[in-house]
Amino acid sequence: xxxxLYGLRSGNEREWLCVDMGISFADAEVxxxxxxxxxxxxxxxxxxxxxxxxxxxxxxxxxxxMYDLWPRFKAPVFATPxxxxxxxxxxxxxxxxxxxxxxxVKQGGRVQIGSFDIEFVPVAHSIPESNALAIRTPLGxxxxxxxxKIDPTPVAGTTTDEKRMRELGEEGVRAVVADSxxxxxxxxxxxxxxxxxxxxxxxxxxxxxxxxxxxxxxVARIRSAALAAQAAGREVVVVGRAMERVINVxxxxxxxxxxxxxxxxxxxxxxxxxxxxxxxxxSQGEPRAALARIxxxxxxxxxxxxxxxxxxxxxxxxxxxxxxNRILNEMIRRGVHVITDRTHLVHVSGHPRRDEMAKLYQxxxxxxxxxxHGEALHLSEHAALARAQGVxxxxxxxxxxxxxxxxxxxxxxxxxxxxRVYRDGQILVDAxxxxxxxxxxxxxxxVVSVALALxxxxxxxxxxxxxxxxxxxxxxxxxxxxNFILDAIYDGLDxxxxxxxxxPEAIEETVARAIRGKVNEVxxxxxxxxxxxxxx
Length: 536
Ligand SMILES: [Zn+2]
Ligand SMILES: [Zn+2]
Description:
Layout: E1 4-8, E2 15-19, E3 24-25, E4 35-38, H1 41-45, E5 50-54, H2 60-63, H3 66-69, E6 77-79, H4 81-90, E7 102-104, E8 110-113, E9 116-123, E10 130-137, E11 140-144, H5 162-171, E12 175-179, H6 192-205, E13 210-213, H7 219-231, E14 235-239, H8 241-252, E15 276-280, H9 290-295, E16 309-312, H10 321-333, E17 337-339, H11 354-364, E18 368-372, H12 376-388, E19 393-394, E20 401-404, E21 411-415, E22 420-424, E23 427-430, H13 434-445, E24 447-454, E25 465-469, H14 481-494, H15 504-523, E26 528-535
Parallel strand pairs: 2-5, 5-6, 6-7, 11-12, 12-18, 13-15, 13-16, 14-15, 16-17, 18-19, 24-26
Antiparallel strand pairs: 1-2, 3-4, 4-22, 8-9, 9-10, 10-11, 20-21, 22-23, 24-25
The site of one zinc ion (ZN) has 5 residues, from loops.
């Protein structure tokens, strides 16, 4: 959910530059929610002073919030051709989204945005056309690394421009705002080319069909899998909308030169097993993606069984272990040969390990390092590493902190609102809103709805109407739950003095409390409770 704001000057002269506008993915902790967006209320208030939005690369955690949030600012957007094409291709999947005009900047290009002079410095990462930003201002040069690693042989996209980084170091870098993702991993991240070789070997030796699942946006990995298939005389079938979309864009941009056209899912059943490699979405166990549906025998075109090979060319993002393991185990039960990065080099991270981070600081020789893009543990390990590299100033800050980079020593000088917003269906809701906590309660203990008809003396007319969902139908001793609820209603009403019975709100409250108490007695859980009082 990356979004950084760089500011210059104060008062009416102030200017903001926004770098990235990403999303985060929700887990089962937030029922019914897939996508989390940054709360941009501060930036909305500052809209007049926002000079532009720069996108470092096309990953969802950097651009995913654009269709939801950009219309609130309508500021100029700057991105490379590939990032722009990906963003545009995503519009078809966003209900009612209007086009976002983008000013295209090539890698290595330079653009003036208000008082910010921005240079796109090419870096290697797990998606083509990733950039660090050299942000030149009257107060100094800041390097915002974006997501990066050092990979001299990246398969698709550029290497990290070491020469340019060294030149920036000579120019004098005030601050580096840098990727912390792999700050707890020693050494150097292997190259995409090492993964390509490993994939080629596995595919060559596979007997039945081969399935490869990876992140839909990992163009290099898709290319490597396709070339491995080609070398082994296999055709490539692509399954999953998100992946098809990225592949179309990448092909148009020339990232699949030398790769034969792919086949649609309906070709799968007619291809001989030994001549098939299928690329699948769903490496994180997403229930609606191709892989989970195949594991559930619920896919119209694709099946995997005994003798086939499934390669997880991906890392399981923390929080997704359960659904991924469920699929993995189901496939193993079927006799599918499952390969993961635990035993084979079938995945590498797109982020720098410690030796790569150290190298960057040797190139840039910054006065100040600000660790970002990681959990607290990663940020603090990153800070220690920068300190060990001799960086004189380190600034640790959190979401919403306003950090002064210059002039003078770095210091948190203010805090602005910076929470989370959930995309709930087509509506954005605040993370603190009652909607989500109610939904959690519903998931835990269900809901009871009761309708009562009362006469003008507060007397009960007829039998109360009771409905419930998510509660056990029968309590112990086979007594219907409804009977306990009815008892609670009568007890609740009886406990009320005559006067109070004229007040519908008091009745609703008392009856609801009685029901929750009674159900808790027999069940051990308190459901949500809705009581409607009708005066007759
Ligand atoms: Zn990222
Ligand atoms: Zn990224």
